[in-house]
């Protein structure tokens, strides 16, 4: 009985990991760069870029949330302890205020899953 439970948990974890890999593989970075045009209102995405209203997003994928050096984050962001994985970025980009209540980010989110995948694909290239 205990082994069946563990198999279920293991299978779920493998599915989550695999879905993250698939998310990265089934994306279009060119379309993501076009979507990023909206983000440029508040963010830069250059290796030597400075912060604007939002933090520079160069290297954001894999970075600890709320850790861009020199950027003033909301208390809600300062309390985050996760890294920006594909899954975390996807959840945040879908609904920033829902994912991080108290965020200063005044953006309603991207409801279209493919558009989020493409944007994350573009962000993955910025490392």
Task: Kindly list the characteristics that best describe this protein.
mainly alpha, 6 helices, globular, about 130 residues
- The separation of the N and C termini measures 45 Å
Mean pLDDT: 86
- Overall shape: globular
The total count of strands amounts to 0
Please state the CA-atom Rg, rounded to the nearest Å. Answer: 16 Å
Uncertain residue segments: 1-22
H and E order: HHHHHH
Q: What does the largest sheet look like?
A: none
Report the β-strand fraction as a percent range: under 5%
Protein name: Cytochrome c domain-containing protein
InterPro entries: Cyt_c-like_dom (IPR009056), Cyt_c-like_dom_sf (IPR036909), Cyt_c_1A/1B (IPR002327)
Organism: Marinobacterium nitratireducens
Pfam families: Cytochrom_C
Task: Provide an overview of this structure.
- By secondary structure, the chain is an all-alpha fold.
- Helix content is 50%, strand content 0%.
- It has helices spanning 2-25, 29-39, 75-78, 86-94, 96-99, 113-124.
- The protein is globular, with a radius of gyration of 16 Å.
- It starts with a helix and ends with a helix.
